[in-house]
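User: Could you walk me through two proteins back to back? I'd like the raw sequence and the structure tokens for each, with a short line separating them so I can tell where one ends and the next begins.

Assistant: Of course. Protein one, sequence then structure:
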Amino acid sequence: MSDTPAPTPQRALVVDDEVELGRLVGDYLSREGFAVDVAGNGVDALELARATAPDVIVLDVMMPGIDGVEVCRRLRTFTDAYVIMLTARADEVDRIIGLTVGADDYLTKPFSPRELVARVKAMLRRPRSGQPGPGQVPVRRFGELTVDPEAREVTLDGRPVELTRIEFDVLEALSSRPRMAFSRRQLIERVWEPGWGGDEHIVDVHVARLRRKLGDDPVGPRFVLTVRGVGYRMGPG
């Protein structure tokens, strides 16, 4: 008999005031090997997130009391769990609002639970920290901006810049080949994964957030430049 302990299952927190939908999503994730907790409101969600430290959170936007946007904002003060938001509204406002408070992805209701599980598993395949290479990766400098890929640290004028995982990964991709203009699809394949089926304009949302944190004027940015008709590339700073 082997003494090797069984691997700890990844934890998922499902938050939805539609009880049956929350249970359905939880059942699908459980069948995929996740340890699942389900909350029906924002207060319970925040308490469970603190108590269980989930790896991924499936979060409904439209909930009574504390809505999903506010829950996501509060989550980002103490956890870097992946967050996928669910919205019953198809307009861009909810999607962009959700992503600007730190969500990683979104799905519009009605959705296939299988698609949701696939999105969750795709997110969890992204590394939480930089993957070490065969040798040390040098710090990259663009004027007063520095990007340290191994430490996953960014500083501006010597001060640390707090970025989400995706924001850092976008910046790391752009800074790895500063003369290259990356298309949205190339960034998705680099930051998300090949074959990711979401809206490519999710890249624009994260670039906008990244620019704000870097103090970049979107009309005349210094660090993340728009290449019209193509996508984005690094600027000299």
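----
Protein two, same layout:
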Amino acid sequence: MESIIRGSLAKSITYNEYRNTIDALLKEGKSTGNEQSEALTHYSELNVTRMNRLDKTIKITPEFTQQLQQCQNNYIWLVISEGWCGDAAQLVPVFHKMAELSPRIDLKIALRDDNDDLMQRFLTNGSRSIPKLIIIDKNTLEVLGDFGPRPEGAKQLILDYKAEHGVVDETAKTNLQLWYLHDKGLSTQQEVMEVMRAAELKHNVV
């Protein structure tokens, strides 16, 4: 695992580089990833608008701000993502805002299709679902926990819809985006901090 992590980190990019990569590809009519289609390009364009909004509006709660600022150990938050992913557009800006609050957290983004070995280690029910946030000890590269591809509330919404309708269609995707809009990133913050608290405890830090 350490060699896979090390290899993915070598290819990883910052949040700003991620945003710039998406923008540059869109100017060429392309999206990130191996597959190219008008639909994926369209989703990428929508996601740029979402991320622009979230960069301006996401607020990290005072409680979680304090906890992040009091981290006792050094971490890498390695995020597996792609620009066309609707969930990633809602979550990666939250990860970025949280990581900015702590000098002990270094946020890096690994594009899924460029890091299949890494993705294969963090499948969700056998699928290559993204985004995935992998919390890593910066000194040892030990994986201390992970989060994703959705907060529990969003996950349940899709499960319930699929149980009722048998498919995840455009209506389901719209409902999901509305859920994220109303949640304002709070569920993501809470669930990521649960993983972080567990990571800190592994270092015997209360």
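The longest helix spans residues 38-57.

Let me know if you want the two compared in more detail.
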